[in-house]
Fold each of these.
Amino acid sequence: MRIGILGSGLMGGKLGTIFARAGHDVVFSYARSERKLLRLAREAGLNARHGTPAEAAREADTLLVAVHWSRIGDVLKQAGTLSGKVIVTCSLPMNASDTALVVAHTSSGAEALARKAPRAKVAAAFGTVPSEVLFGVFAARRRRNRPSLLYCGDDAAAKQVAAELIRDVGFEPVDAGPLRMARYSEPFTLLIAQLAYEGDRGPELAYRFEWFGKQIR
Ligand SMILES: NC(=O)c1ccc[n+]([C@@H]2O[C@H](COP(=O)([O-])OP(=O)(O)OC[C@H]3O[C@@H](n4cnc5c(N)ncnc54)[C@H](OP(=O)(O)O)[C@@H]3O)[C@@H](O)[C@H]2O)c1
């Protein structure tokens, strides 16, 4: 897959690195310094490069949106036309102080993003875990009991891409349904963040859903 990273911070930097190490072509973009993007690309290995958001978008079939909510408009504008592209978003609609959701209950960040990029195919994934756990999950990807990761979306192709990337990182994808399910998964992340950052066991936290009883497929 050719993946453009829009937002190369804690989430985008780590996920882009893992995607590249899993064999995808990755372009890191959107940080405040080009040196940081260069370093990320160098450390991620031969499959990674850096570029502008427009270059990342032009050359990719899939884009990871990983910016603070206040930067969504800017990064989409810099990326340019996203017609037909798959967008996987991990961005949460947090206020400036990261203390509360500014979109919730009757909509979600994922749905708001989809409205801002109406020609793209949007899936929400990766936003329900702290960045600190990502490398650990990737390192443990051959274990039998993988942690779960929720994803949702309205477009079947975008969801397939999200599920593939989730597996590549080392999680077991859990299909939560249509994009509006982000109305539930985004507040769930605040609980995960509370456990990760305010608990006494550290932020390397993932979760696992288990179904008991008869498997219906
Ligand atoms: N961190 C987590 O554990 C976590 C977990 C779940 C969901 N999320 C969500 O994922 C999204 C990304 O979070 P994050 O923690 O990865 O954020 P972050 O570390 O702040 O990364 C954001 C990226 O945007 C870049 N950026 C910010 N302002 C910019 C500007 N004016 N021009 C160019 N680049 C700019 C930053 O540049 P620099 O690299 O130069 O700072 C950084 O690369 C957020 O919506 C967050 O709510 C985060």
Note: The first strand starts at residue 2 and ends at 6.
Amino acid sequence: MQPEPLLSLSGVAAYYGNLCAVRDISVDVRPGETIAIIGPNGAGKTSLLRAISGVMDRVRGTIRFQGAEITRRSPQQRVGLGLVHVPEGRHIFTAMTVEENIRIGGFLRRDADRQASFDEALSMFPRLTERRHQLAGTLSGGEQQMLAMARALMARPKVLMLDEPSMGLAPMIVNEIYRQVRLLRQRGVTILLVEQNARLALENSDRALVLATGTLRHEGPSSGVAQDRSLGSLLFGT
Ligand SMILES: Nc1ncnc2c1ncn2[C@@H]1O[C@H](COP(=O)(O)OP(=O)(O)OP(=O)(O)O)[C@@H](O)[C@H]1O
Ligand SMILES: [Mg+2]
């Protein structure tokens, strides 16, 4: 028997004003899965994550998390439930230190384990530990991505949404970041992984959603997508 979905989207459409960026998407995400969300520029990948996070102008359809409908919940409530988004472009607080940025990730938490989570998040990436007192605005792009991920972990994600974690980064840094993605998968964190680099996303996921112009073109095991010739031109330009 399949486990109950952790997150479930039914007929979800999302808008910027009158522009429909995501059309009629239905998908179930099971606990512990990593789902790659791939497709060309403008396909609606970021908008889909934003719909789940509750920051789109308007969303139609139904989003359920752990069995409860959350379609009208505020973004903050969703973070509190464990839906945590590392946005495209990272959006760290440049005038604050590395440590301060990480602590902000736990702003909704009142529990006694916060300090332990902070220590763990800071130690995820040795580069962050070394730069703990440095202003975040002076970090390199790769270090900023690491910081955005460490900050997200402070919120104890049940579903971690990563939007283009490899964007603009050198291969060595991408490796460091994906090493952590693999560790999080091993720990059972459910991950929605948006990537321009389809191969990288497929190698690091269980299942894939292929989007184009806001619609779901294909859904299936990641291993199959890489071999599907009909998706080749859409994803790999072949
Ligand atoms: N803030 C916005 N206001 C209006 N339209 C937007 C906004 N952000 C995105 N769009 C439009 O929504 C559609 C989907 O964009 P989205 O950013 O979700 O695509 P994407 O798949 O993430 O693309 P990319 O790979 O380039 O990041 C596009 O047509 C885009 O022009
Ligand atoms: Mg995007």
Note: The chain has a mean pLDDT of 94.
